[in-house]
Design a protein that fits this description.
single chain; about 230 residues; alpha/beta; 5-stranded parallel beta sheet; 8 helices; about 35% helix; about 20% strand; globular
């Protein structure tokens, strides 16, 4: 009997990091692995119904030691992608510290996972047209509009001048993926370097010129799809 290959991923959050790493899970799923991924509860709820190639396990906090207990008990292969999280391994933190000067953190994660970095832009998810249309209708954009996401996990910013009516991204739905129609049809996107910008970048839903608001002097994830970096 063929042995079932179960791959455990250690990356309990945050949602931007999870979006960045979803193509890693898909890459292994395509190669016959059952992917088990413990994530903090609110992220598991965001992914439910949208990601069908991962078995997400909801957990109460970001403690990597609890994640390790789950994946080592249930999986025969484990990829540890967590840096600087509670109880992340000193080995991973050392890899991060030694490489972050010359590489972006997403490049480091893909190297650890042994997945080609180009796969980052093969983000696959199930679209919920009903939820997307409901949100679009509720916001009722008339004509061209600027879509702005201004709140990161540990930093917020204000919106400067824009060329169209502005619609601010806020938690109006149960999943970040419900914003896809709004992303597609926006004439302009302004986003702080955070989960929403990662979704816009990796999905390729809007290839128009966009503005990325820096949270640090450098940009740690790689953005290549027509962004202007602004302070």
């Amino acid at each position: 009997m063929k042995k079932v290959r179960r791959l455990g991923i250690i990356q309990p959050g945050r949602i931007g990091d999870v979006i960045i790493c979803l193509p890693i899970a898909k890459w292994y799923s395509d190669r016959g692995y059952i992917v088990v991924w413990p994530v903090i509860e609110y992220i598991e709820k965001q992914m439910k119904g949208y990601i069908d190639y991962v078995h997400f396990v909801p957990i109460a906090d970001l403690d990597c030691s609890k994640v390790r207990n789950i994946v080592y008990r249930n999986c025969n292969t484990v990829i540890d992608l967590a840096f600087s999280f509670p109880q992340s391994t000193p080995y991973n933190d050392k890899i991060y510290a030694e490489n972050i000067i010359n590489k972006s953190f997403d490049e480091i994660k893909y190297e650890i996972a042994a997945v080609p970095f180009s796969e980052k832009w093969n983000l696959e998810f199930i679209r919920n047209s009903e939820a997307e249309n409901k949100l679009f209708d509720e916001l009722s954009p008339s004509g061209q509009y600027t879509l702005a996401h201004l709140d990161g996990s540990n930093q917020s910013c204000s919106l400067g001048s824009v060329r169209n009516a502005a619609i601010i991204v806020t938690p109006l739905t149960s999943s970040i993926f419900d914003w896809c129609k709004m992303i597609e049809q926006a004439d302009e996107i302004i986003a702080i370097d955070s989960c929403f910008a990662n979704l816009v970048e990796q999905s390729g839903l809007n290839m128009k010129p966009k503005k990325l608001i820096k949270r640090t002097p450098d940009i740690r994830p790689i953005y290549r799809n027509n962004w202007e970096f602004v302070d």
